[in-house]
Every structure is written in C-alpha cells, then in structure tokens.
Fold this protein.
Amino acid sequence: MKTTNFVLSGLGGQGILFMTKVLAMTALNKGFDILGAETHGMAQRGGSVVSHLKIGPAKSSLIRTKGADFLLSMDESEAYRHLPYLKKGGMLFANARTNAFPDVRVASYLSKMQIVPRAMEAGKAAMEAGSPKSTNLAMIAFYSAFGKGPLNADDLRATVSAISPGAFRELNLTIFDTCYETGRAMVDA
C-alpha cells in the first residue's frame, strides 16, 4: 500500500485533533499503519493548529512541503497558509463559502499545481443541524463524499458512530449524512 498523507489545519478550539482521531481510528480499524504529529502553537488562544497523519508505511511523522495528498482545513485562512503542503494533484477541502472559494489570488497556483479545491460552509451546516461544535465532523463527512483516499464514507461513519457518546450519536450521524450528501451533490454536478 502506498502511504496517504493528510494535513489538517485550523484554529485552536475547532477540533483538529478530533478530526485526526476519527481518521486515525478509521485507518486502524481497516488494518492500516498510521503515524501522526500535532503542532498546537497557540491553540489555547485561537492560534494555528496543524496535524499531520500518514496512513500506510511511513518512517517519519512529519509531512514535507508538497507531500500531502489531502489538506482538510477548518479555517479558510489556515487553508491558504498550509497550501504549500499539498502535492501536485492534491485535494483541498476547506470550511469556506462555496461561492467565494478559492480566493482569486491563489487560483493560478492551484491551477499550476493541479490542486482540486472543494469548499463547504461546514460551520453553517453544523449550526443548522443544531450542533455548532460539530463543524469538524461536518468537514470529515464532506471529505468522505468525494471517495478519495484509503478511507471510505461508510468506514468513517462507523467510527463516528462508535466514538459518539450515546446522547449525541444520532445528531452526529445526521450531521455526517447531511454533509456527505452536500459533497455528493458536488461530485454529481
């Protein structure tokens, strides 16, 4: 198996480490090796948080510039800040307004690097579902809709179900399903 590299970025309090946990647990449940590293920075004060996750055989936990297959970002500014991590042909998933993403100032770079940008207002989707703290879960579901990488939507959904406290399980799965469908609509368009 080829190693698949994920960089997850956002701000302190947005649940980057939870996202990493969901991806890592799903990979482990499928029998894949994982290796990861987290950079908290000023997380407690809303500063940048970055997590690197390698699924498959890996010797080092850190992902080099132009080494990530996927960048999942909970914040549009953090998506742009960590864009150099994406390799040519990588995919960018951002919590951003669909009609304004990506910024025109990075469009030529994305084109040159053949990076596919995808955006969903994950915060808005989580808020409408009644759980604004589930924005990170919404982003994972959105990513899963595109069917890229070693982790599929059914496996990720099963992990979310398994780790969700009983009182929140149904709500979390509803958010997952709703945001998965949002992504599928983009794939099918």
